[in-house]
């Protein structure tokens, strides 16, 4: 296999030293205690231990994904990790795109901005060849086999030629032959100078490694050294029985204590202080380029997923059809208006804009949180990430809002307003959709999965129906309801639409006896200049996007101890 390629600089393996690592969870339970270990540059290392022993936690701390509650990790003697590759357990790259496209986007997000398109193509081709995926380049990621997907996931990280790779259970779920092939691949990476650290449940994987780190069930270090030394230390012919041997201990600290004594007698291992290779300084792609790449990728994902696109555009059209069937024409006819119908038309248009925006945003983030988490490690920032969502979805919303207003006006369900007023109606509806989109993104950032997001939908919609002031006018609400109505973006959209549609004049001066009493009930709901409604709706957009940013920042594992 080709390992060193023409366009890539040689890789420098990174030495890692962990001192006194400890981690605890919210309940206060200690899940890792006083882990001290040293990994030399260019070693292939397996972390093993029973389920729940803390393997993933240790890997994430070593990779800088989690902050330890105690202790330090240094890379070649420095606290800065340089360029590292983290390959999580789940297959977390977008499944819709062909593999080569996925890698191109990943490269544009990870490589320095000065890297030109030809260089990116070369790098992607190199990585595909290195991971023996060249013939799968045009296959959508979702159609790759489990082993190929795992290699694809490694390929994403290989693009930057990191000096150290961390892989969480790379062989889990793979058949033994594919697992061995993957381990050989990792060995080939090590042979090019990289340091590779992985967790595994497959004890046979350890035989392919230079070093094994054994954790007890209590998250203590029972051993670190070569697999042969581990067999000798535990008095085993095969490490397959290592968990049984650990469980024979009468005290949780028995093996860690024995190992501490053994280590004290052993020669001092090569530590990172001895290391002579500096980690590559990390670079970060600029915000604007990140936004452009993410927007292009989102657009391509939406475009390739025809069914999603059909639902995104088709469901508003269905709603539009329902409105056309529900409302008779001529409710805004000045000589014979139907005041109660005008309220309903304006309210349902406002609610339609809100609902489309909300549903567009609600599944956007929660369905790709692991991808975001991974890309955050590669330097992706949250502002470009959120704005790239808006950049793709807002034009679609602009299209459906325009269709909604245009068709209803053409079918005489709206007043025959001129160009300026139509533009004002459109601006109100689009801002309302944008606020709802931002609210959807916020909720999507706050939940853990699509099921929770879907459950939130009624909770978000009900108040935007009840407290908007359409079904029950704001002056007729209880005091609490009146206060709550200020927080409903839909209220400002409904009242803004009503102002531009001229309902006050229509009810007061139109030919319906129902108009004046209705106007008395609604008070001055529609008398505000529409730009005030626009300002408020714009404020909601910023508020919800800001809150989504804050929530995502809080969820960043590197902030948690
Ligand atoms: N955020 C968290 N909150 C509460 N408990 C946690 C959290 N993260 C991990 N744990 C607990 O810490 C322990 C170690 O978890 P970890 O995932 O590191 O173990 P593991 O050895 O990788 O397990 P497995 O082999 O089953 O994947 C487990 O008991 C787990 O339930």
Automatic annotation (TrEMBL):
Localization recorded for this chain is: Membrane
Gene3D superfamilies assigned: P-loop containing nucleotide triphosphate hydrolases (3.40.50.300)
* GO molecular function annotation: ABC-type transporter activity; ATP binding; ATP hydrolysis activity
Q: The ABC transporter domain covers which part of the protein?
A: 16-243
Q: Is Methyltransferase one of the keywords UniProt gives this record?
A: no
Q: Which Pfam families match?
A: ABC2_membrane, ABC_tran
The residue ranges crossing the membrane are 307-327, 339-363, 384-411, 423-443, 455-478, 534-553
The main location class comes to membrane
Alphabetical keyword list: ATP-binding, Membrane, Nucleotide-binding, Transmembrane, Transmembrane helix, Transport
**Membrane topology of the entry:** Multi-pass membrane protein
Coiled-coil positions are: none
Q: Which GO terms describe its cellular component?
A: membrane
What protein name applies here? Answer: ABC transporter ATP-binding protein
The species is Micromonospora arida
């Amino acid at each position: 296999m080709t390992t060193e390629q023409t366009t890539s600089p040689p890789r420098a393996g990174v030495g890692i030293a962990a001192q006194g690592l400890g981690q605890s969870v919210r309940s206060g339970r200690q899940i890792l205690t006083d882990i001290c270990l040293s990994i030399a540059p260019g070693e292939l290392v397996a972390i093993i231990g029973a389920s729940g022993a803390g393997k993933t936690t240790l890997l994430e701390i070593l990779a800088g994904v989690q902050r330890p509650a105690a202790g330090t990790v240094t890379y070649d003697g420095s606290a800065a990790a340089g360029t590292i590759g983290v390959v999580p357990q789940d297959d977390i790259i977008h499944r819709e795109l062909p593999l080569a496209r996925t890698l191109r986007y990943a490269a544009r997000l990870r490589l320095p901005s000065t890297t030109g398109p030809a260089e990116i193509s070369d790098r992607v081709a190199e990585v595909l060849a290195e991971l023996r995926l060249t013939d799968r380049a045009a296959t959508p990621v979702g159609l790759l086999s489990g082993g190929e997907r795992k290699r694809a996931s490694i390929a994403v990280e290989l693009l930057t030629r990191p000096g150290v790779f961390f892989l969480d259970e790379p062989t889990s779920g793979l058949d033994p032959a594919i697992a061995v092939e993957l381990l050989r691949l990792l060995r080939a990476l090590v042979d090019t100078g990289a340091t590779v650290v992985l967790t595994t449940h497959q004890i046979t994987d350890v035989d392919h490694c230079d070093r094994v780190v054994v954790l007890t069930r209590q998250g203590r270090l029972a051993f670190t050294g070569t697999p042969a030394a581990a067999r000798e230390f535990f008095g085993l012919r095969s490490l397959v029985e290592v968990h049984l041997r650990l469980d024979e201990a009468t005290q949780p600290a028995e093996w860690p204590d024995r190992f501490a004594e053994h280590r004290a007698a052993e020669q001092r291992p090569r530590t990172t202080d001895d290391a002579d290779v500096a980690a590559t300084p990390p670079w970060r792609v600029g915000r604007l380029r990140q936004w452009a790449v993410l927007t292009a990728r989102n657009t391509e994902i939406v475009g390739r997923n025809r069914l999603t696109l059909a639902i995104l555009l088709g469901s508003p059209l269905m709603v539009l059809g329902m409105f056309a069937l529900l409302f008779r024409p001529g409710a805004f006819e000045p000589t014979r208006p139907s005041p109660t119908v005008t309220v309903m038309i304006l309210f349902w248009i406002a609610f339609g804009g809100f609902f489309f925006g909300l549903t567009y945003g609600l599944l956007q983030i929660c369905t790709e949180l692991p991808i975001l988490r991974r890309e955050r490690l590669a330097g992706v920032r949250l502002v470009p990430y959120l704005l790239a969502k808006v950049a793709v979805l807002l034009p679609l919303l602009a299209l459906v809002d325009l269709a909604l207003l245009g068709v209803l006006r053409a079918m005489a369900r709206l007043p025959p307003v001129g160009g300026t007023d139509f533009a004002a109606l459109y601006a109100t509806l689009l801002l309302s959709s944008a606020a709802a989109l931002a609210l959807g993104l916020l909720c999507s950032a706050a939940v853990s999965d699509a099921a929770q997001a879907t459950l939130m939908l009624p909770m978000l919609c009900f108040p935007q129906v009840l407290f908007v002031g359409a079904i029950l006018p704001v002056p007729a609400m209880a005091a609490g309801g009146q206060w709550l109505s200020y927080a409903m973006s839909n209220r400002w959209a409904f009242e803004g639409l009503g102002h531009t549609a001229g309902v006050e004049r229509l009810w007061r001066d139109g030919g319906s006896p129902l108009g004046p009493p209705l106007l008395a009930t609604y008070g001055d709901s529609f008398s505000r200049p529409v730009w005030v409604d626009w300002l408020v709706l714009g404020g909601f957009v910023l508020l919800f996007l800001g809150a989504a940013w804050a929530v995502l920042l809080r969820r960043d594992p590197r902030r948690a101890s």
